[in-house]
């Protein structure tokens, strides 16, 4: 869906990150987070909340 958009807004990036975390795909969420040109409080909150929900597997 988002691939067809020419330019993603900050809201779009945050939605992608949040959606990936909600379905448990932390790897794709991290990739989206890294690719997002800007990170704001919503981006960071989505990442932190997702790690709490899904576990913090990068520490193992």
Characterise this structure.
With 60 residues, the protein is mainly alpha-helical. The protein has one domain (10-52). It has helices at residues 10-22, 26-35, 41-54. The model has no long low-confidence stretch (mean pLDDT 88).
Q: How many H/I helical runs? A: 3
Radius of gyration, taken over Cα atoms and rounded to an integer in Å: 11 Å
Strand content: under 5%
How far do the termini sit from each other? 33 Å
Mean pLDDT: 88
Q: Given the helix and strand composition, which structural class is it? A: mainly alpha
How many DSSP E strands? Answer: 0
Order of helices and strands: HHH
Main β-sheet description: none
Spatial shape = globular
The tally of domains stands at 1
Could you name the ranges where pLDDT drops below 50 across 5 or more consecutive residues? none
Amount of helix: 55-70%
